[in-house]
Design a protein that fits this description.
218 residues; alpha/beta; Rossmann fold; five-stranded parallel β-sheet; globular; binds adenosine monophosphate
Length: 218
């Protein structure tokens, strides 16, 4: 089974993706996480991508599509995968279809997490992340047991550079302009399943599971 998670920044894609991957034994392929690793390791791709990421703009398609071709080919031998943060515009969705066609592979369902813009700003500016295991917290809505450190491994939490108000505003605009149209792209293919992304992590997880079951068992 191969899944796509769609939704605005701050919708909870990463949090839910981790749980869904554990449950169905899928590999999470999160473009943002992969790009941040490239930035940290100062690879050629990292150097080219840095200014786009820090400004909240999309990294150019040719770089992303090459990276994803490599990641999907590398991971598909392990079984199913979940694409988190890709595709992010129609050209990427079309490139993904071509790639899957070449590989004789397919997407089973695209889960669309819906959260109103009014909620996203607060979620993103209050987000804190563990550098080691990637767990996301929120200063108010989901604080760690001990202030500033991860519950799982005691690492000091950090704030992503693009989680400030100005960059978040741009990321939300980019989402509306460039990424939202691909919801229609997957609706037309009969693959989109909408989930209300406002509620507890457990409630949303259950809704996603119901969606997956309705597609995969039909
Ligand atoms: P994320 O962690 O998904 O919020 O992504 C962080 C940043 O990485 C985005 O704001 C973009 O600059 C870049 N990025 C992630 N995925 C993509 C993609 N599929 N296409 C272009 N840029 C991306």
């Amino acid at each position: 089974m191969n899944l796509i998670f769609l939704g605005p920044p701050g919708a909870g894609k990463g949090t839910q993706a981790k749980r869904i991957c554990d449950k169905y034994n899928l590999t999470q392929i999160a473009t943002g996480d992969i790009l941040r690793e490239h930035l940290k390791n100062e690879t050629g791709l990292g150097k080219k991508a840095r200014e786009y990421i820090n400004a909240g703009n999309l990294v150019p398609n040719d770089l992303i599509i090459d990276m994803m071709r490599y990641e999907i080919e590398k991971n598909r031998s392990k079984g199913g995968y979940l694409l988190d943060g890709f595709p992010r515009n129609v050209a990427q969705a079309e490139a993904l279809d071509e790639l899957l066609n070449d590989l004789n592979d397919k997407i089973d369902v695209a889960i669309v997490l819906n959260v109103p813009n009014s909620e996203l700003m607060a979620r993103l500016t209050g987000r804190r992340v563990c550098p080691s295991c990637g767990t996301s917290y929120h200063l108010i809505f989901n604080p760690p047991a001990k202030e500033g450190v991860c519950d799982h491994d005691g690492e000091e939490l950090f704030q992503r550079k693009d989680d400030n108000e100005e960059t978040v505003n741009n990321r939300l605009e980019v989402y509306t302009k460039e990424t939202k149209p691909i919801i229609t792209y997957y609706e037309k293919q009969g693959l989109a399943h909408h989930v209300d992304g406002v509620g507890s992590v457990d409630e949303i997880f259950n809704l996603i599971n119901e969606g997956i079951d309705s597609f995969v068992n039909n």
